[in-house]
Amino acid sequence: MVDEGTKKTLQSIPLLQTRASPRDKDLWVQRLKEEFMALIKYVQSNKASDSDWFRLESNKEGTKWFGKCWYVHNLLKYEFDVEFDIPVAYPTTAPEIALPELDGKTAKMYRGGKICLTEHFKPLWSRNVPKFGIAHAMALGLAPWLAVEIPDMIEKGIITYKEKGETSS
């Protein structure tokens, strides 16, 4: 069962058609076009609903992705670097999204700051190959993870709010 909010989010993200990984050369170019279109639609939908929460960009080949994501808690914006590589077996295998600066700060994370998505997201991803892409990974993987883990880490004092320009100590 999927809640109404999740259904609405999914409806705002176009499904992808092309089954291709970076090894597939010309097909990968087609897949990347679909990925960018889905990401653009998702970001536009987020902005329209006043729930903008990430920025992503990729290297020229579309194999390494990086950017920022943020979570607002008690009217304070907590911002984190986000990164992932496209797996060789993509889209059969979902990307492993990492928030490196949170590495080791929660049990729901693997080495290198990779967030744990095995229980809920990976089975959903595997049922939707090749229709799911990067926008779906952000919406159904990273967003719920942030919503659960960030408030918990804040309440436990594991992460603290930093003003713009402040550096981590």
From TrEMBL:
GO terms for biological process: protein K69-linked ufmylation. The keyword Nucleotide-binding does not apply. InterPro entries: UBQ-conjugating_enzyme/RWD (IPR016135), Ufc1 (IPR014806). It holds the Pfam family UFC1. GO terms for cellular component: cytoplasm. Keywords: Ubl conjugation pathway. The keyword Metal-binding does not apply. GO terms for molecular function: UFM1 conjugating enzyme activity. The active site is at C116 (glycyl thioester intermediate). Belongs to the ubiquitin-conjugating enzyme family. UFC1 subfamily. E2-like enzyme which forms an intermediate with UFM1 via a thioester linkage. This is Ubiquitin-fold modifier-conjugating enzyme 1.
